[in-house]
Amino acid sequence: MAQTDVLLTKQPAPQTVPACELPRKLYDVARNTGAYTSSGLATAGFRTAKYLVDEWFQNCYARYHQAFADRDQSERQRHESRQLAAETEALAQRTQEDSTKKVGQRLQDTHCWKSELQREVHDLVAETDLLLAQKQRLERALDTTAVPFSIATDNLQCRQRRQHPDLVRDHVEVELLKEAELIRNIQELLKRTIMQAVNQIRLNREHKETCEMDWSDKVEAYNIDDTCARYHNQSTDVQFHPHSTKFEESASTPETWAKFTQENLCRAEREHLASANLRGLIDCILRDTSEDLRLQCDAVNLAFGNRCEELEDARHKLEHHLRKTLREITDQEHNVAALKQAIKDKEAPLKVAQTRLYQRSLRPNVELCRDTAQFRKWGPLSACSKGVCPAVRNRGAQSLRAQLPLLVSEVEQLNASLAALREKLLEAEQSLRNLEDTRMSLEKDIAVKTNSLFIDRQKCMTHRARYPTVLQLAGYQ
Predict the structure, then answer these.
(1) Mean pLDDT of the chain
(2) Among the ranges given (146-155, 372-381, 468-477), the one the predictor scored with the smallest mean pLDDT
(3) Can you point out the beta strands (E) in 132-188?
(4) Which helix (H) or strand (E) holds 265?
(5) Are residues 350 and 293 both part of a single domain?
(6) Residue 111, Cβ neighbours under 10 Å: how many?
(7) From CA 204, how far away is CA 211, in angstroms rounded?
(8) How far is CA 153 from CA 45, 181, 205, 301, in A?
(9) DSSP letters spanning 340-363
(10) Which end of the chain has the least Cβ crowding within 10 Å, N or C?
């Protein structure tokens, strides 16, 4: 065509290439750009609207090869796809089974730790309850010690009302002071032990709460893992979570996870052991304190018994001496009366002798004679001097030697007898006064002993009958 400005350059004939590498385009078409280009759509950019025969064959061969290559590639892709699908299916199945197995193992581990935590929580609860019971025993024992302390102080105050000379620091008072001091020391010990029990109960509860929190977390994790272990490909509640593979920075490792629970269990076991040891210590303390209090109570009661026996024996002896003193007072009163009567009986003979001397001194002149009535020799001690006191007899012997006048010696003898009787009367009256003083002293001492016996036996020992028993002092009642 003469008007055609654009020449089509024919490409070389296509060479035989593998089906997978057949060219998609066999010709490069040059478009008309001149002024006399064709305006037909069917021949746009081409030299003519018809192909050559060779071009037609080439086009057919190209289509054959393209179809063969596409089928071969498709078959290869189908084979590879089936192989890949089978491999991925097997891999997914193995991975899922392995994940399920791992989750199952994790469930076993979690269940094991959860069981250990639950057991420890139950043990701590039981131990705390036992320690609370021991604490209540301590509180009851502390309240019970108020009764012995009030008894001891009341005994000491009652015994302050004893009278002299029984107001003495005796063995009973020493034992009562020891008892009061022992009770004060026991009360301080019980208070300190109660504080230890309160602190241990607080620690037990804190570690129980820690184990409960860990147990609660493991229960929740166990439920989650159990739900995860039950998932399968036909589950209806599964869905896509694209961001679930993101690594959590706060996540723990299996080592730290196991160590955390193990440390919680170790601390709980340590507090459980400490609580059990404290309970044993409380048992020993309550047993020892109750025994000490009862032993001291028995010692005080024994001291009271011995003291009451001493007071009773002393009172009996005092009453015995009082009875003898009363009899002696009666005899002495009779003796005083007899001496007074003897003195009175000597007055008449003295009057007679003195009157005789006086009358005979009135004799006149030579009649005033020293006759035998007036004077005589004394022989051996006359019978009239018998029964006279030794002083009178001695004076009679002196008169015998001096050969005094009879009447004068009679008067002197009577005066001497009266002087001896009066002296003896003074001695008897003084002895009677001494006996009366002794009687009053004995009666007062007997009253003091009776008062002391009343205080010790009726007040103190009766009050001590309310002393708590060993079980009450040990906090069981």
Answers:
(1) 82
(2) 372-381
(3) none
(4) helix 254-360
(5) no
(6) 15
(7) 10
(8) 135, 11, 41, 15
(9) HHHHHHHHHHHHHHHHHHHHHTT-
(10) N
